[in-house]
């Protein structure tokens, strides 16, 4: 598995390609929910914790399920996010939070940690497809220099 991180260039956002829908078929909706739970457990103790509301672990677990709805949808599953939250418009939703290139790296590090338990349990191609998506998607979320 190649967890390389594309360098951020403030003048260029690379095109993002959605993950292979086979990723969701392999991992299942509960697998995505478990993945996002692991991610948010890591984020809860990370240097970027302050950009995730509210200020308690229960709030983080609720946020992980909202994110899981987004990722299930982006991976070709039901449109839970749209049904519960409206159109994703993720750049706009993240605009109130200062997301720097360094914050992106912390987020990706936690995501890598959350993905590692899947290695050997699902196809490497599908796992790589998901990583490639979040790697580029995370560039689009950067909204603050510093």
What does this structure look like?
The protein has one domain (21-141): Orthogonal Bundle (Globin-like). With 146 residues, it is mainly alpha-helical. The model has no long low-confidence stretch (mean pLDDT 89). Helices cover 59% and strands 0% of the residues. The protein starts with 20 loop residues before the first helix and ends in a 5-residue tail after the last helix. Helix 1 (21-44) packs antiparallel against helix 2 (57-74).
Secondary structure layout plus pairing:
Elements: H1 21-44, H2 57-74, H3 80-85, H4 90-94, H5 101-115, H6 124-141
What do we call the CATH homologous superfamily?
A: Globins
Question: What's the number of domains?
Answer: 1
- Mean pLDDT reading: 89
CATH class: Mainly Alpha
Topology as H/E string? HHHHHH
CATH topology: Globin-like
Q: Which term fits the overall shape?
A: globular
Specify the CATH architecture: Orthogonal Bundle
* Distance between the amino and carboxyl termini: 30 Å
Main sheet overview: none
Number of strands: 0
Low-confidence stretches: none
Helix content: 55-70%
Oligomer: single chain
């Amino acid at each position: 598995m190649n967890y390389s991180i594309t360098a951020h260039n403030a003048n260029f956002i690379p095109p993002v390609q959605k993950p292979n829908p086979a990723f969701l078929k392999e991992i299942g909706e509960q697998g995505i929910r478990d993945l996002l739970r692991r991610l948010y457990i890591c984020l809860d103790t990370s240097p970027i914790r302050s950009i995730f509301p509210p200020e308690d672990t229960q709030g983080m677990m609720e946020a992980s399920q909202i994110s899981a709805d987004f990722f299930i949808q982006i991976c070709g599953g039901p449109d839970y996010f749209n049904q519960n939250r409206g159109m994703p418009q993720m750049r706009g939703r993240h605009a109130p939070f200062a997301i720097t290139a360094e914050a992106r790296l912390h987020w990706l590090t936690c995501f890598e940690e959350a993905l590692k338990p899947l290695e050997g349990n699902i196809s490497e191609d599908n796992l790589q497809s998901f990583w490639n998506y979040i790697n580029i998607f995370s560039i689009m979320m950067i909204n603050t220099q510093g």
